[in-house]
């Protein structure tokens, strides 16, 4: 079998989320860190290239995404997928619009969809409005995100600010009528000059119908949810085996640790739950880091004797509530605060691995990007799911490790303690 789906993800946890979804739906999938060099791995149906392009300058994001596309194209992929966040994380400058435009131009296609829906994680799109649980995006914790605060829930408006292509909507009335109705709506939208259609979706059934209508689109842009409905197209075309499941991992053994740089609502609750249940946590204060205090050394010295502890693996976290994050950003600036914390957590992760850690949970997309790069990881095999959107993985390149890269807002409140049981 040849490579079928080539994916470009704008952050590392998002890439793992998508890869996990494809594995669940029966595609053998490998995640590559950054644009790979050399030939593609053998015996895989899909490749997800993880970039750290969500919050870089739009021209950098475009450049990297085009390099990724070119590699995937040369590797023989038949369809391409641009994965962004289920909360559509972006700014008015990008990067969802500019990257979509560039990929469409490079592929010579005049139509694609945009759909961040991930109903299992309570991200739904209705009438073009994005909901997080029962709240509009702009009323959810995403309004306080440290890097990409989302204050407009109307995805047509959000995307139209980022692209000169005409943005339209395939609303739920159409989606509910199934794949053929969606295909017909796409044809009529094209004749109206629409080039990017936001698509409503509130359930996995919707995702399957939408997937069916996307069989012939060269480019799909979406969160990870839409990926559930794509493998069926390859199966129908006789390109994908029925039983092609690949979530078995060879798990490296060693000490365990948790690193958290996410300030999202779910991660704040997970950190609070971990500490409240008497487990060991070490907080990284960005202002003390900025003042030159050696918090990296102190965190590692604190963690070392706790690595063999029975009361759970140690947690090192910069996770903080929105007011605390704002105070830090007011003093250091958003970008500097982000980098300072990411670099510190990445250095701590490397120090932990030197001290014998082989199984690690990392919370936060940007944080995971920094950690994985610092560890010299070049790719990830995707294993079993812990919670929707978060699979265990094992590393290619660098030291053999089991890693779970958790998107900020994913996972149940006891994620940091329960995740280990999935590895056994
Ligand atoms: N206490 C803090 N103050 C300011 N910024 C922080 C703090 N803790 C973490 N950060 C930064 O916030 C950003 C969180 O983004 P990310 O890791 O992608 O998490 P999420 O997945 O929740 O979006 C990172 O750049 C991180 O370094
Ligand atoms: O689609 C999603 O929600 C995730 O896959 C994702 O991209 C989350 O990003 P972070 O919250 O920055 O980890």
Automatic annotation (TrEMBL):
Query: Which EC main class describes this enzyme?
Result: transferase
On whether Nucleotide-binding is a keyword of this UniProt record, the answer is yes
* Domain Four-carbon acid sugar kinase nucleotide binding, residue spans: 257-416
**Coiled-coil stretches noted in the UniProt entry, renumbered to this chain:** none
What sequence ranges are listed for the domain Four-carbon acid sugar kinase N-terminal?
5-229
Superkingdom of the source species = Bacteria
Which EC numbers does the record give? 2.7.1.217
Point out the signal peptide segment.
Answer: none
Does the keyword Cell inner membrane feature in the UniProt annotation? no
Q: Which Pfam families match?
A: NBD_C, SBD_N
Q: Which keywords label this protein?
A: ATP-binding, Carbohydrate metabolism, Kinase, Nucleotide-binding, Transferase
* Function of the protein: Catalyzes the ATP-dependent phosphorylation of 3-oxo-tetronate to 3-oxo-tetronate 4-phosphate.
- Write down what this protein is called: 3-oxo-tetronate kinase
Q: Which organism is it from?
A: Noviherbaspirillum saxi
